[in-house]
Predict the 3D structure of the following.
Amino acid sequence: MKWILLTSKFSPADRRIKIFLAAVFLGVILFPFLISPAPAAIITCKFHQITGHSCPTCGMTRSLVALTHFHLKGAFQYHLFGPLVYIIFLVSFIALLTEIITGRKIGLGIKPFTIRIAIGIFFSLWIIFWIGRLVSEFTI
């Protein structure tokens, strides 16, 4: 089974979309490098300010900033999924850049159903993590 294979070419409209997405992903990848890891430098979550409880992404920015400043332990402490999200954006950016340069779509040797199941599991685990966080906030 081939994990990565170059498939058919894509249209100029698809190319523009891929360039836009690559720029957005690059922004997500580079932005945390620009923020100081000092806690006061990071904007706090409005949901948390209003409710006093964490939202599903609370700590994500801090996690990405910690990761890009090589504080791996802190990255996982701020948000368990932060490092994984960063890796997903990085791999997606590389894939998009490869597609833009080669002019061909990259296909994973994985069935779409399997990808949907993996995405479903990822978000289910994320929600379970968030519920666990909420439970710990109510019990403390």
Q: What stands out?
A: The two ends are 49 Å apart (CA to CA). The chain has a mean pLDDT of 88. The helical segments are 12-34, 46-51, 60-68, 72-78, 82-102, 112-139. The first strand starts at residue 4 and ends at 9.
